[in-house]
Amino acid sequence: MIDPPTPAQTKPAQTKPQMQPLSPIARSTLYATLVLMLLALAFGGWGLWEVFGGADANRPTSAQLQDQQRKIDQLEQRAATLARSDQISRDANGDLQSTLAERDEEIAGLRADVAFYERFVGATAQRRGLAVHELQLQPSSELSWHFVATLTQNLNRGAVNAGRLQVSVEGTRAGKLQRLAWADLRQQPNAPGVEYSFKYFQQVEGDLVLPADFKPTRVAVRLVPQSGSPMEQSFSWADSLAGAAVTPPSP
Which residues form the signal peptide (predicted)? Predict the structure, then answer.
């Protein structure tokens, strides 16, 4: 009697796996990968050649570097020279402008001098006796003032006018009118006036002190000549501060 086959004996024999052909998409992907790898190797080799081999051919020589440095030094020197020249030109132009401004001021002063001379000394000038042409006031401190009085005369040509000048100030104090005499302004009893002596004109200067609660409104200049009668001229305090009149030249 023949025994029936066991399950192990009835199992079919195993066969070797067979390779399946690549699909068109997989084949294209494989080719693209290979091309990229080849390109990467080519670029890498080219870069190494540039660094270790080809770069030396394009690298400037020591002589070329020295020549370039020499040209750079020349350009820097030229730039520094041009900058210095420009600064010198600017300074010279500034000095020239300042000189021209001073010359213009001198010319204006000379024209004013000529006009003043023609007014008092010229052949067509109106003849006038001793007078105060102008009075200017400038503050020296809170209560002290400096005055400059311009005296003129062209009536007696060549004659010397000599005498003394005194100043008085009119104003209000504690709501009342008051006149401060020369002695009050000088804070000195029997104070002598300022001496003057000239032929055609002279500037006489002096100082005066006002009380703290005094408000000036007018100032009077009194001239006491050595011969002749005294004369007095009054000026507004505000006008004397403004100094609108042209100051004559120094004699």
Answer: none
